[in-house]
Design brief:
This protein is mainly alpha-helical. It has two domains: 45-203, TRAP transporter T-component (Serine Threonine Protein Phosphatase 5, Tetratricopeptide repeat, Alpha Horseshoe), CATH 1.25.40; 205-314. 74% of the residues lie in helices and 0% in strands. It has helices at 2-35, 45-65, 70-97, 101-127, 133-136, 140-150, 154-175, 183-187, 189-202, 206-218, 227-241, 246-260, 263-275, 284-297, 300-305.
Length: 328
């Protein structure tokens, strides 16, 4: 009897130790997610890139230790999506502008891998809330019905759907130039659009109206797309963000104005990005990324690609001078 009690006591102690370790891991993951917003305040692009790489390795390790932890899954889908957009696509664009096809293909593959990983974790995260995604992705009607029925929590679902949906659209954008390999992704573009639409319906303010911006860019995907709707959504995002979220102006230019071949709007929006100093300290990183891309987008190669060579350039508007200090 004493031996049995000893065995049970030991087993209980081991189980308790395991529970304590799990609680510590989960607590660390929760704290990391809460503190992650500080990353957005870093305006040094190179420093942020190095930190983002290290952060992804850390999040992967956390997920390994606690595979069911939703905070870890969220950080992974957000982290891989953000890294793909902010850093890998940046290198891809630089290689394409330089005409280095081999290097561009390498970075294109890296971007796809990042978005693949983000989508993998995103679908796992959504699966914690509702089963049936594979059946729901059949067509536009079934995916909307599944999302509307199962995702109703603005506080949590809006973010989960945004990052997963954005990664889905970004992967299509990366692969659309490859007619053979990219065709299946283009055919399922509606899935990512539906996720973003549901995210915006739940909380349009999430991540500085990023869902609205992403959908506005989608509606300007080609000259025969929904350009009036795109313009309306970009104008709405500009008004809501008060010009402090520079990716709004960037996308307004490179998506809508480029497709419309409106050089005046194109250059006005890009110059506004470049002239902005530090409009929002909470968005320094994304604004730094927007500035890098806006500068490249003003290069002659991009003016040509948009078919605007025959239109006169728009001189930059002089930046507003700060008002003089009041007399003492």
């Amino acid at each position: 009897m004493k031996r049995l009690l000893s065995v049970l006591t030991l087993a209980t102690a081991v189980a308790s130790t395991g529970c304590i370790k799990q609680m510590l891991v989960d607590g660390q993951i929760e704290g990391t997610r809460k503190a992650s917003s500080a990353f957005d305040t870093i305006g040094d692009y190179e420093m942020a890139k190095t930190a983002a790489q290290a952060g992804l390795v850390q999040f992967e390790g956390m997920h390994k230790l606690s595979p069911k932890n939703e905070d870890a899954l969220f950080m992974l889908v957000k982290g891989w999506t953000g890294f793909g957009f902010g850093f890998i696509e940046d290198e891809w664009e630089v290689a394409m502008d330089a005409g280095d096809k081999e290097l561009a293909a390498y970075h294109q593959k890296r971007a796809k891998m990042a978005y693949d990983r983000a989508i993998f974790y995103g679908l796992e995260l959504l699966g914690h809330k509702a089963e049936g995604f594979e059946a729901a992705r059949k067509d536009d009607k079934t995916i909307h019905a599944w999302l509307n029925e199962n995702f109703t929590d603005a506080e949590n679902d809006a973010g989960n759907l945004f990052w997963t949906g954005y990664a889905w659209l970004a992967r299509v954008n990366v692969m659309k130039g490859d007619l053979e390999e990219g065709a299946p992704y283009v055919a399922e573009l509606f899935v990512g659009v539906a996720m973003l639409e549901r995210s915006v319906a739940l909380d349009p303010t999430y991540n500085h109206y990023a869902g609205t911006v992403a959908l506005a860019a989608y509606h300007a995907r080609m000259a025969m797309a929904e350009l009036d709707q795109s313009k309306q959504m970009f104008e709405q995002a500009l008004q809501k963000t008060q010009g402090k979220t520079l990716v709004v102006q960037l996308n307004y230019a490179v998506k809508y104005a480029c497709v419309k071949q409106d050089r005046a709007l194109y250059e006005t929006q890009l110059n506004a990005v470049l002239q902005a100093e530090d409009p929002d300290p909470e968005q320094r990183l994304t604004n730094a990324i927007a500035k890098r891309r806006a500068k490249r987008a003003l290069a002659p190669i991009h003016i040509h690609d948009c078919g605007m060579d025959n239109q006169p350039p728009v001189p930059p508007t002089p930046p507003k001078k700060a008002p003089p200090p009041p007399d003492e």
